[in-house]
Amino acid sequence: MSAFQMAPDQIAAIADAITKQVLYGIDISEMFGQLNTPRQLAPDIVATITDAITRQYNSGHNLTGMSFGERGSAEAILDACKQHAEDPEQYGRDFIKEAHLYRALWRMNREAIQSRYPDDESSDVIPDMPGNCETIIRHLKYEDQHWIVPSEYHQLLKWIECYLYQCAEGDVPTWPLYKAIQDYCDQLRMFICHNNPAYVNASWS
Prior knowledge:
Blueprint: H1 8-24, H2 29-35, H3 43-59, H4 73-83, H5 98-116, E1 142-143, E2 146-147, H6 152-167, H7 176-194, H8 197-200
Antiparallel strand pairs: 1-2
Helix pairs in contact: 3-5, 3-6, 4-5, 4-7, 5-6, 6-7
């Protein structure tokens, strides 16, 4: 069972409601019912994950030395993008469009939430990808036998882990796209670990 962390504004609303209950005896049961709604991962976070995976896919090893681990992961991402393309035939094998991957990731997240909360009446309309998402995957400096990994990579890893956690409902974990994102998450985690100076300087045997 997946858990959905409440946003700060929801926590503030609960605190305010409890205060009113204690001070003024106001019935807050209806308010709590309104707060107990599933929340999909924020569009800007999904967009940042999309940007990272798109850059990695379109550059191969040339960007950071990191790649997808499982052979079928790249194909699964390509197939998912084609499903959201106006003309799937425009795609080759070496390039994807982030707008199409964003829609695929959003749809998968939405499908998982609906599996967990079948009575949820939130809109199924996929929003446009935010244009000001953070760019984390970029060319890295290589020195002292390892890549210099910025702290933003740790945040990206945690966001992807959160995304996968939210998507772990119904049959979504069996989707090829889910497994591809899981593979990318594993590769990113290993990349961060293997390029940590403490790991690089640790004894091999």
